[in-house]
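Known limitations

Files may contain more than one protein. Parsers should not assume a single record per file. Below, a two-record file is shown to illustrate correct handling: read the sequence, read the token line, then continue until end of file.
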Amino acid sequence: MSDHCSDDVPREPSIDRRVVVVRDRYVPSHPHARVGDAGVLGTGDVLTRGFSSDAQFAAYAPASAKPARLSHASLPLLAAPPRMQLFVVDVDPPDHVATGQWRDDVQARAAHLPGNPFGFWTRNGARIVWTLEEVELESGAAWSEWYLFQLVVIAAVTGIVADPTCSDWTRLHRAPHATRDGEMLTRGWLSGHPGVLADWQPPSLTDLERAAALGYLTARSASWRRVAPRLIEPSPSTPDAPNVASMQDARAPLAWARRRLAEAERGMRNRTLYDVARWLRGKAPDDDVRSELHAAARRVGLSDSEIRQTLKSALAPPAQHAPQGAA
């Protein structure tokens, strides 16, 4: 992966968060990666260096001595789980049209972001980057849930509506000074400094504040209206969830969970497995949940390794659901 430095790109020493950088978003992922497709750089370099390609950076550290882009299919093949290094947030304007008024509004709100993250403008929006205390990825579903809750915190504190579709841990982010269509990008800074990234240390929210922020987001974004139900655990009082208090045993909750999994759309089955397993904590013996949901998940096409990883994360004690160092 070749690159070069541009005189008009600010240069700062690299910091110690080292992440995978790929030539462009079309490079194949592990185990099909080719030599030269990916490299490893400190975030200071990633965010200031001028690249001769459409360079993209990941939020994770290299998984082996041979750096490569990772995908969900890579997980069963890795000797150890990926280590997440960055919390990267995209902010898009309505209809993806970044007017001057919208940029002024985001600039004012960015002053209230937790810590002092580095933010920069993109072609049609903005991107904000924090570092994380090194976090092992438990499962894609657990990371996605944690990520979305952090966006709720950002909305509660600043009113910034961040893009929930970036919650996939595999997502790549274009470097500020990549080259597109033969021209190196020049992006202005929104906040902070690329050489001194802040750790993500969010303030805690009350249940009422979290609910209010989620309502604020759903009122302003169709994407949030689609994902908001994922952040609300099924309640026994809802029409399609069993009334556990009136049951003689745990069979009905398990049957309900199997039905939800069988009805899940392709692409949402692992997410649904995680959701129903979490909801079943305390409502049925863990061994029964693992056994019955594992069988149900296999019937809808999930792999054994994916099922085991998701159930392990979903049935962990609540304190283990947030990445280390993040509330």
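...continuing to the second record:
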Amino acid sequence: MRSLSAHHILRIWEIGQSQHPLDRALTVLAFGCPEMSPSQLASLSIGQRDAYLLTLREITFGDKMNGLAECPNCGDRLEFDINIPDIRVAEILSPKVEVYNLQMEGVELQFRLPNSQDLAAIVGYKDVKIANELLMQRCILEASHKGNSVAYQDLSVAVVNQVVQQMAKWDPQAEILLNLNCPACEHSWQLLFDIVSFFWTELTARAKRLLQEVHTLARFYGWREADILSMSVVRRQLYLDLVGS
């Protein structure tokens, strides 16, 4: 994995304009993890994908993040800080599809963890129940009772719920909840942290700032975009300070 350069950030932002968030996440990782193939990235479990994104964000922008949320009780806007080490609950692993086993109610199951391809397959479904069923059907690889195959539709609700709980156990980075408290009304609630959305917002802001810097320096000095972006952040800022002085 490598940190994202100014060139990478602008290219990612340009490509991602027309992409779904699921594809944006993979685009970001493709630039940050050139040693991994697109199929390897797409096969990462959602938790592992997010663990990779957290690490990439950390080596690119640092381990401190600033967020904004709206209180669901009074509507006041709340600023909060996040330290990446505090929300990292899983280390990044080499891409490998693990198969997990479960025995319950006499049923033997084999399942894998949901990945980006699975989420992409249910994007168009508005009915949450149907989408969840399709997701589980994709991830439950085999189910049998006394040697006889069992269809997904014949699994009890308890068995399916147990599979969901096991998925959460083996992929803890997939769902990170932030505990927030509104200073205005003292309401407390939990917010689901979405690293894909958070990182993309930061990349968008940085890309727009880079374009403004390129515009300023190219207009003042006549330099090419590639040369400006190749400068270190410190050097580029020094030139911007000279232009503004």
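Parsers that stop after the first record will miss the second one. For reference, the second record is described as follows. The chain has eleven helices and eight strands.
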